[in-house]
Records
---
Amino acid sequence: MILEKNEIPYFIKIEGCNNCKVSQAYVTKTGTLYENGHTLYAKCIHMGCDQYGHSLEVPFITPKEYVRIGTALGMSEALDKAKKIIVRFFDFYDTKGNLLPWVIETISQENIEKPIHIKVAP
């Protein structure tokens, strides 16, 4: 089953919570990575990531990154985690944890279609 482009989860579009503006704002505000009950948790709910079980408290790490870590450190746990994510989101990833071409194309197309707003000083 291939999902419509508007059904690609936000955390997959941005390729992991580390690229999320909510995560970056939290790190800027607190100076730490993650903390239980963080003040920006509502944003994780608003972005839709929480419905999949991901937030700043439980960040989404891409399968590709798990594969890289697992291979570099010889950690079978990381490779198992990558496999589980690929199985759960098989519509979006190939067997190595890379985004499938149709996902990349859809995301690229969305970026092209978004209007660009330019502020001009008076």
Note: Residues 117-122 have pLDDT under 50 and may be disordered.
---
Amino acid sequence: MNGQRGQVLGYDTDDSGAVVKIHVRFYDTMAGQPRKSMQNRFGPDAVPISVFKITFDLGTGRRVTRIGFPLVAATAITIHKSQGQTYTKFACDLRGVFAAGQGYVVAGQGPLVRVL
């Protein structure tokens, strides 16, 4: 599932309230296929991502445990903030555009798209 993009649908917690699983719907419907289940409360397209825990030695006799989810948060900005910037990947939600011509892009070279 490396490199996939998607939407977080929800999460599961343990008895103490700690998040132990995040459910994601990936834009590529084949991503995470073996983990999908018809019994998932977030729907059959939701992929459960469990907390990742790894312990390693710092070399100083100390052991460190890193706990987290193997996800990278995406950012969101307005079309006005993005003017003049170049992005290699983006998603654009044009629902709620209040006037014709308010949302537009110009294709750049290769996979790049410039948001005006």
Note: The two ends are 31 Å apart (CA to CA).
---
Amino acid sequence: MAKRCPHCGETSDADNICTWCSRSLVAEQPAAPVEGGAARPSAAGPGPAPTRPSVAPTTGPARPKPEAVPQPRPLWPYFVGAGVALVVVVLVAQFVAVKAAAGPPPEPADWGTQQSKTKLLSVLVPGNYKFSTSGSAGTYEQVTVKATKLCRVYVDGNATKGAMSDVSAATARMTEDTGPATVVRSAEGRFHAAQGELHKRKDPSYAEEGQMGEWSFAGMPGAYSEYASVKKVGLLAVRMKGWRLSCMGGDYGYQVWAEAPATQWEEFQPTARKILESAKLNPQN
């Protein structure tokens, strides 16, 4: 039975589908109304997608800004400060040490006779000064008398210096007819000059002043020179002045020193001279 298509208006030979536009010949039912009066759009239908209504921002107290994280303080200022403090302490300690070492010697008192360890040498020593000695029979002997750390009289005799003095004596004998006899040309003078050169190599600050002179020690003829040098007390330097004396006795050659800081040398000289002039060699059995 032929039906008229409600869509294209043509007469279809089929009962359900239009043979012309292929659409349904059954009348479409109107869509049910959506509650609220507005028709819900078909999911498959054309048209723009619904948009979500914007939500107005709520008002309220402002959020506090995060506090800045405190950074650790650098440590180097503390190290620098500690270093400066340490330097100050060291310098103060050095100053105190130098002042004590280079200070004036005490007035000598209670003089008494002391012997070297080898019993070869006797010398007068103030009882309020420090006396020390060491030695070995036939090898060496040493005697030290200290008024302060830097004011001292020091005697060093040994067989090695004795051998050097023998060479000096032999040289003096071979040249005794070639010029006038002077302390410089004597055996003691030659020995003294040779010991001075050796000491200059050990202490570049050592410098002799004036001319070489004659001096006897413990009954032995000798030669001496005045000198200046520099000694270190910790980190600080102290200018020194003194006498160096060379003499020969028996198997030993002797180097004798009397010295003090330059500022105390004039005051210490009388005491040093008395100690040196009191020295005696003891007879050996």
Note: The two ends are 173 Å apart (CA to CA).
---
Amino acid sequence: MVRPLDREIPHLVLPFEIRIEELEEERLSDYLRFRAGQNPQVIRRRLAGGDKCYLVMTEGQIVHCGWVARRRKYDPYLRCTIAIKPEDIFLYDHYTHPSWRGMGLSRAREVHVCNRYRKEGCQHSVAIVAVENKPGFHPFEAVGYHRTGTILSFWWLFGKRIWQQ
């Protein structure tokens, strides 16, 4: 999915207060409690490599997060590297706590991220949504993303990729 950042970015009002902030080292333990099962070394490598994680906070708790990359990014789900143009951003690894789903938190983060990176001169925001994650398309479409294609891969039984488009 792609969203040109030169188009109007919708204003979003939620019925409760939120704060959006970048993940910093001092919040890492909070993030790891929120995203149980995440590898701390992987998260530190992401941050050291320049990726940013945006936390959506309410009532003092992290309730949603999403990552942004500005460089080539290996995607473990697709098992391939995503090439990112220097003027674009790539969004990945979004997660909303189950009790907060459907409340607009992902859309709020998208609006925040689009506004921030448009000010930095970025031209497009790119995201991948797994085809089986039907609800995952809605937050992106609600803030102006459109589907641009499908990444297809076929894997042999023993884990070797035999075709990708």
Note: The mean pLDDT is 89.
